[in-house]
Write the structure tokens for this entry.
Amino acid sequence: MSGKGSSAKGKTGQQKHRQKHQNTYAFQSDKYATHMAAITALPVQGLCKRCVEIIQWRKRMGQYKPLTVAKKCVSCSQKTVKEAYHILCNACACNKNVCAKCQQAEEILPSSAAKTPAELQLEKQNEERLLAAMTERQRRSYLRKLERGDDAGAQRIGDRVAQAGSDADDADFDFGFSDEDGGGESADEEDDE
């Protein structure tokens, strides 16, 4: 027998086999499940970039299990940890300036739900205003892309509509004159006369 490998009969050495079956489409969690909507709405705060990505992956793949009761903080030994997968409470993580999950002193990303009610109201009004400015076809495409999670595609549609709206606003006051035409008299010509 050469090399370290499996002790099973006929499996000597380290053989790497390719994946037998490849997924043809990405996993989609049950979007109609009420608990999935509640889990997706939970904020992700006080974490480094790597831990935020891990938590978001867990939410996306249906692997996230929220806490039902508060957990004990490893720093202050109080039952103050209310977020799943965190080991430090928010107060201790802020005081130490570390990630609440991995305790690494890296850049802490801002909270995903740190928006005030006024900011949320403003975003909702802007969204309604944008939807009102869209044609039916644009509106359906925009909402479909948001539903599928294609925020970049929805943003492109929104930008296109906003750009068209600003062009239309400028066109209302465009009387065919431009500053370079010399159509109007300048202040220098009035002084000469």
